[in-house]
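HOLO CASE FILE
Compound: zinc ion
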Amino acid sequence: MPVHVSIHDVSPAWATEVEAALALCHEAGVRPALLVVPDFHGRAPLLQDARFCARLRELQDGGHEVYLHGYFHESQARYDASRGEGRLAWLFAQRVVSGGEAEMSDVSEEEGRARLERGERVLADAGLRVDGYVAPAWSMPGWLLPLLGERGYRFTEDHLRVYDPKARRARASVVLNWASRSPGRVLSTVAWCRVAGYARGGVPARIAIHPGDMGYRLLRYEVERRLAWARGDVVARGAELLG
Ligand SMILES: [Zn+2]
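Model generated. Tokens follow.
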């Protein structure tokens, strides 16, 4: 079964860590997709860093895909009862699952559409081709998939599946990632990745590297091990996971 590798939260805010993750991938002969955030947490506007933009263009020319990854990568972090979601469900989604990063689940469809269009413009202005879209924290509200299809996207993903929004196709896929955001969960996610690795015989797998992972010796080692495990089956384009 094919394996796809990506680096999340690609932003000038994480430039050093992104290079560290790229080095691990390149050593393993892998060209991961780059999930680019136009303005990470509202404090790292992509277009203000010409060198970083040039580096991304160079990587895309070298065969890396570039996916739009939210706009701010941050939720409003306050509960709005008018959205019809229970407070506990909201707290769970925002605080437990995503750590306050589930941007698209926290905005109206209208605002979500505006952020998508604005994000596409930022990447175009940076000289980048948009090869796909991944919602921050893989959190996709119901309106997002049809919107991506309407805009011609051929690849997106959430926790459980990969999609071709335009062709309205989906396929189950296991995702391996580590929770470096919460140090208490690092060990449990290492254990999960080792277990989930066995699912690969049945479904395509994704290896998701986060910049924060690079701050842990254990996780750098785990990423290296996973890349070695995937050797020979890695595909450069996410869409290839759909078969
Ligand atoms: Zn992210």
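CASE NOTES: The chain has one domain: 3-238. The longest helix spans residues 109-125.
CLOSED: yes
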